Amino acid sequence: MNALGRHILAEVHGCDSEILNDHAAVEQIMVSAALKAGAEVREVAFHKFSPQGVSGVVVISESHLAVHTWPEHGYAAVDVFTCGDTVNPWDACNYIVEQFRAQNFSASETLRGVLVENSNQKAAV
Amino acid sequence: MNALGRHILAEVHGCDSEILNDHAAVEQIMVSAALKAGAEVREVAFHKFSPQGVSGVVVISESHLAVHTWPEHGYAAVDVFTCGDTVNPWDACNYIVEQFRAQNFSASETLRGVLVENSNQKAAV
After folding, report:
1. In whole angstroms, what is the distance from residue B76 CA to residue A5 CA?
2. What is the pTM assigned to this prediction?
3. Which reaction does it catalyse (chains A, B) (predicted)?
4. Contact B112/A at CB under 8 A
């Protein structure tokens, strides 16, 4: 089975609430995660909410990373979606979990854009 | 069971390849999808790839919408993640599918940030 991409949804718990509420820190961690995994950063868009919480996305050549934080719960919803074979999304995910000082996390990987051979042509199904 | 958010991953197939390769059209469709679902748009970041394909994200107060297109396969990977009760992510998802003129799609919804009552406090687990 061939897929265009791999998409990790991570539920990250017991994080440092001060980090989760720090716009600059969250943005830096997400961009660094992309770079450390070998991705090429294309666009960065983050937003700080009042009274608390940060949302943001890093668009990479290989797809995107996204985060939404709830400092009051010590919780972050993290996505890492990569296409191609050069970037391992788990490298980025594990880095984020570590940098948020999470006590625990659960994550699942979903294949995106699974390709099947159909006579002489390849199509996404 | 209480959750902070709902996250739809949609595999959208048989789309109009010209639309999928049109940076402005894809961006407009994604922003319109957010607005039509009643979301508040905070940040928009899109990128056109060479020779083809568009990636982009709309950060909303209620989380985000993301898209990655492969015009050569008529395929788009679409995410709609919303928190709170005011926005129905399926409204945005169905609008995008329609606007991409998709022949078919499959989608799954995942709950994010499931909360459990733990003695006198509520925590994300």
Report:
1. 11
2. 0.91
3. S-adenosyl-L-methionine + H(+) = S-adenosyl 3-(methylsulfanyl)propylamine + CO2
4. yes
Tally of structural domains, chain B: 1
Angstroms from A56 CA to nearest CA on chain B: 7
Domain assignment of residue A41, yes or no? yes
pLDDT tens for the 125 residues of chain A, in order: 689 999 999 999 999 999 999 999 999 999 999 999 999 999 999 999 999 999 999 999 999 999 999 999 999 999 999 999 999 999 999 999 999 999 999 999 999 999 765 544 445 55
The domain that contains B57 carries what CATH number?
3.60.90.10
A43 vs B45, B63, B115: nearest CB: B45
Q: How far is A30 from chain B (nearest CA, A)?
A: 15
In a domain, B119, yes or no: no
- Model confidence pLDDT, tens digit, residues B12-50: 999 999 999 999 999 999 999 999 999 999 999 999 999
Examine the residue annotation and report whether A93 is marked as an active-site residue of this protein.
no
Domain, as residue range, for A48: 3-113
Question: B55 and A74 in contact by Cβ < 8 A?
Answer: no
Q: Is the dihedral of CA A4, A12, A24, B62 positive or negative?
A: positive
- Enter the ipTM: 0.90
CB contact under 8 A, A113 and B43: no
Examine residue A121 and state whether it is found in any structural domain, yes or no: no
Is A12 inside a domain boundary? yes
Contact partners, residue B99, CB within 8 Å, separation at least 6: B19, B29, B32, B33
Q: CB-based contact (8 Å) between A123 and chain B?
A: yes
